[in-house]
UniProtKB/TrEMBL annotation:
Gene3D superfamilies xrefs: CBS-domain, MgtE N-terminal domain-like, SLC41 divalent cation transporters, integral membrane domain
Subcellular location per the Swiss-Prot or TrEMBL entry: Cell membrane; Membrane
Protein name (record): Magnesium transporter MgtE
Protein task: Acts as a magnesium transporter.
Protein species of origin: Lutibaculum baratangense AMV1
Subunit structure and binding partners: Homodimer.
Matching PROSITE patterns: CBS
Alphabetical keyword list: CBS domain, Cell membrane, Magnesium, Membrane, Metal-binding, Transmembrane, Transmembrane helix, Transport
Listed transmembrane segments: 273-293, 305-330, 351-369, 375-395, 407-429
Amino acid sequence: MRTDLPTDDPRLDALEGLDPSTIASALNRAAGEERRAAFRGLPPAKAGKVFGLLEPSSQADVLQALEPETRRAFLDEMEPDDRARLLGRLPEEEAERLLQVLTQEERALTMALLRYPEGSAGRIMTPEFVRLHPAMSVADALAAVRAGERRAETIYFMPVAAEDMRLLGTVDLAALVLADEASTIADLASTDVPAVQATDDQEEVARFMKEADLMVVPVVDEGNRLVGIITFDDAMEVLEFEEGEDFARTGASEPIQRPYLSVSILRLVRSRIVWLSVLAIAATLTVNVLGAFEDTLESVVALALFIPLLIGIGGNTGAQSATTIVRALAVRDVRPRDALKVALREVETGLLMGVAIAIAGYVIVSVFFDGAIALVVAITLVAICGLAALVGSLMPLLARKLSIDPAVFSAPFVTTIVDATGLLIYFMVARAVLGV
């Protein structure tokens, strides 16, 4: 399937023959002016479909190229949750300006979502759904579905609520269609319905929906009153976004939150320079350790040859442990209260790996160097692997306990710490074994 933007046509008319998702994928990767020119060249009917599939950053960009009436039409046609996601990622002044072009009804729906904290379930729920009453007959319910289908985001699962909007259960469309028309919704409703609070963390809600295999989950306020629903596609977008953030931070970088080729060089620099500077400062610990043991290195020059090997193995061991625990935290396999269990498992794992590598290392090193040096390297390998696994496992758990993103304390940061402490262990072992 062709997804690259043609470059021989300034209006990019060749995009007209592609399907909307392919066009949206191409526009997401394009530079700003090229994207705007391409979008202006699309037929109106296709432009609306493409707009709905664009990333929020791309949507904000193409809106600048539209006439006021067209801009208003596109914004009005968006689902309230998609519109809130778009406006929530824009500067406050720009978001306010776009809110003012909406109809009064759509502005009220959007502002209701924007009042919830960023990252909460309320930000990704839709307030447009078909709500059924328990006393309704099946015939009346089907009529309500037909009447509300155009505005509702989904009709496959519908919440059942009392007059005061207290959530009572849910009914799926298949059960409604197959039921006797004289039956009531109370007869069909499933009361064992999982619901989430509007203030719950949206990543936790998304993972819950994935684990429970839920297509729709009702959202309630503190009084158990129905305020919206979250659909599976919106939940998966949250997971994709959060996993992208975690992946970026495991590499000591801030997420760029938009397609790579559409990001300027300066933005790439800004996303990386802060953590790179932090790690550079942290790396001075390694320099200080080397300076403190300068006399030891001068006495036994051969020790210097194994420094890259030891800090490399220690850093990689810590990175493996940290990555494993960050992932386990993300999918809720472990929690901060499991710290002792996790630490014991990881230390045992690290020591076993260290012993295996140390045996092989001792044999190889003793062939070319004195047996005492081989012993120093072997002992250090065992110790550094155990330490690295311990540090790599505990730092993400500590971060979660402190409400910090565990990915921040992942591979690069752990590697830097293990480098310094590993060298300290190495020289202390060398002094004890070699007597220098």
